[in-house]
Write a structure and sequence with these properties.
Strand content: 15-25%
Shape: globular
Strand order of the largest sheet: 7-6-5-8-9-10
Order of helices and strands: HEEEEHEHEEHEHEEEHH
Structural class: alpha/beta
Largest sheet: 6 strands, mixed
Number of helices: 7
CATH class: Alpha Beta
CATH architecture: 3-Layer(aba) Sandwich
Number of strands: 11
Bound molecules: zinc ion
Helix content: 25-40%
């Protein structure tokens, strides 16, 4: 009998936990796996996540938020800070489940001179002072830029980042040496069309997500001028 490599119980637990969380994200319609997807960059991949759909099921979001809160339960937290609508919904759920009963504040994302910027509304500034303990919450972390901006913002105010909790993190992302807890840590393999193993196998290319972006307009209504 050949001995299969045994996984450590902790690694196994992480793997099982990730599978459960992926299954939850799949049920929201946000996560697509085992596919052959065209990305906006022109690269091909096997997996795709639609960020806006991640927090559409309140009971799922509450459950996932509670897992993040439990991870940081031993740390006292005064404020949960996030930016962006999805992350804000999740941060409410994290704060609600954390034993310190932290308050929830959010930064506003914007662009300045082509560079990303995060601004904290004036009304929130008195809530983040010296020694305020801040837990950052993000839904999906792909480049880490937003989180690093949030960290700078907190430190500029003299407050302290106790950690970062997120639903999904690309494994390669580093976040300024802060403790990061993610429910799923995963990198999608991406391929150029020439090197794509799925193209070589003749698997049809799913262009839906790119087409949807290019051809569909968001629904909107406008107040009449009269
Ligand atoms: Zn391909």
């Amino acid at each position: 009998m050949s001995a299969a490599p045994r996984k450590e119980p902790a690694a196994l637990e992480t793997e099982v936990r990730e599978k459960i969380h992926l299954e939850i994200l799949k049920r929201t319609g946000a996560y697509h796996a085992n596919d052959h997807v065209l990305l906006p960059s022109g690269q091909h991949t096997t997996e795709y996540i639609e960020k806006t759909l991640v927090t559409t099921e309140p009971s799922f979001t509450e459950g996932l938020g509670a897992v993040i809160a439990k991870h940081f339960a031993q740390w006292p937290v005064d404020v949960v800070l996030s930016t962006g609508p999805g992350a804000l919904i999740l941060s409410h759920c994290v704060a609600r489940a954390h034993p310190s009963r932290p308050i929830v504040v959010y930064g506003m994302k914007g662009l300045a001179g082509g560079k990303r910027r995060v601004t904290l509304p004036v009304e929130f500034q008195r809530l983040m002072r010296e020694r305020t303990k801040v837990l950052l919450v993000e839904d999906l972390v792909s480049s880490g830029t937003t989180l690093n901006l949030l960290i700078d913002l907190v430190e500029q105010l003299g407050a302290q980042v106790v950690g970062v909790g997120c639903l999904w993190r690309r494994t390669s992302v580093e976040v300024n040496g802060k403790p990061v807890f993610s429910l799923v840590s995963r990198d999608f393999p991406t391929y150029s069309a020439e090197d794509c193993p799925l193209c070589r196998k003749g698997v049809p290319l799913n262009e839906e997500f790119v087409r949807r972006r290019a051809h569909r307009r968001p629904s909107s209504v406008q107040e009449s001028k009269t």
